[in-house]
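Homework-ish question, so no full write-ups if that breaks the rules, but can someone show me the predicted structure for this set?
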Amino acid sequence: MSVSLTVSDLKMAYGDFQALKGVSFHIEPGQFVTLLGPSGCGKTTLLRCIAGFLEPQSGEIRFGDKRMNDVPPHKRNTAMCFQSYALFPHKTIYENIRFGLRMHKVPAAEHDALIQKAMDMVGLTGLGGRKPYALSGGQQQRVALARCVVVRPDLLLFDEPLSNLDAKLREKVRVEIRELQKELGVTAIYVTHDQAEALAISDVIIAMNHGVIEQIASPRTIYDKSANRFVADFIGTANLLHCKYAGRDACNLTLDTDIGGFTVTDDGYDRLDDISVSWRPEDMTPLPEGGEIPQGCNVISGMVRNSVYMGDRLDIFMHSGDHVFRASVARDYDIPEGSPIRFAVPYGKTRIVQG
Amino acid sequence: MKNKQAAKSRRSLTKKLLAFLIPACIGLIFLAWIVVPMGMAVLWSLVNPDYPWSYPQMFPSNLSLYHWDHVFRYTDILGAIKNSLIVAAMTTIGCSVLALPTAYAIGRRKLIGGEAFKIAMLLPMAMPGMAMAIFLGRLFAQWGLSNSYTGVAMAHILCTMPLMLRILTVSFESVPQDIVDAASNLGASPWARFKEVYVPMIIPGLIAGCIFTFIGSMEEFNLSFIIGAPAIQTVPTILYSYLGYNFLRTNASVVTLVMMVPNIIVLMVTERFIKTEYLGAALGKM
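A: Not a homework solution, just the prediction itself:
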């Protein structure tokens, strides 16, 4: 029912543009995996190669043990939800969902029960007789989802399925997709450029940029332990500062930057050339004037340039040397612009990233 | 402030005026182009030969069905209608069958020289009908296709094909790739995709193409005359016999009106077909 997916050294170019520059990864059966990256990073190309709509120039795609490169898309038993929904405009909702069953030669007697079940699953009960254009965007995407799950695919593919929905609905449908996938136990690959969506929905995130994979990790790891500058910056917000390795003791590393030294808890870092120090805005605690510096913290001092009230928090942009850093603090702070300020960041929350 | 309001009311007045003027102009053009010639044809077909209609009379002084009677009595116009319908039906079917796969290939496949072919396929439209008729007539006579339904229909297919191909190519091109991908993703073989996705989605284009082809064939004279005559007489060949050296406006009017009947029926029937259902499908939210 659900399969593992192995992609090895996949390359794909459109003319001179190298969309995939040798991509390899492995996905366990039943995992929900997100391909995350900015537009043009190759994530959609990768998804389309997996579905079989595009033929890669080299490399291999395997579902379980089966090599899929030469299998045409209609024999791959995948099912994709498109950003444009891609419902058949001339067919009713019922017929749209039935399409896959007919194509897969499921006996006609079973159709009705399967379709009703799929429609119940996505909350479309009773809408079977409508045409796609008579439904809202959210409903159309649910039809697409029902149309996919009804054929019991080996692999469920999503190509930015929620981009055309408004923010509230996006969150709602995203939870529904995840619940449905868990219920069916089907392997899912989900393409998005929305990092919040990726963090919320995935077992594993594959971060991509310029046709290569930057990091493969769980949402928690990819956020807390970003491998490089790109990942740290793309997923959430990060303060990044080029630095030089200065030394290490039993449990800490010391780093030199142009605004002073930093101490970082050792996490087994091995590559120490071309590195930056990185920390998250929400890990910065403002220190009271003249107050004591807490143990095990780096101190960053500077001048408040603006503070932006975000409702759930206060974002402070501060000048330090030539750099601007961003800090997120509790919303009841009131820090006037132009005043000097100091922040503490624990060693454990300060990370070294490549680049 | 007051100035602004004045400007606003002036603008809305202009808007109202335009909303009246534009339909009025279109109405006038419609009147000049369609209603007047049609009305004239009807009047001319009803002129009583004993009371000729001449300047400065606005309307004929006496009406009769003399010319209708004459045309139906002395020409085989019913046979000609039958011939025209047979040829038009053969042409429409033949043209669709040949154009569908061709347009699919041009519209959906990356053909080498596809763009050049798109332009080349319009070239027959630039060729004068009579020139084509004379050369084709010679060729068809050699092949023994003259004086047959097949021959006339084949010639008609040749000259209606460019428009049909053009319309169908655009129809195929405008089917969103995502919908085709969705179908193959759900297990549809290439043939199933053609049947289940392409065909229903290009139906509006196909119907439009068929209307043009049918009417084009019904009204075609050059090829019908040179290849079909004398065995296959169509309505236009009878019409032209009244428009030649011995010009008979009255009888020509009768034949013109007769020729319009099948066209109007076809238009009305297809109009009902195309309406809401398919246009909605093709243009709906996607």
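Now go work out the reasoning yourself. Hint: The domain at 76-283 of chain B is CATH 1.10.3720.10 (MetI-like fold).
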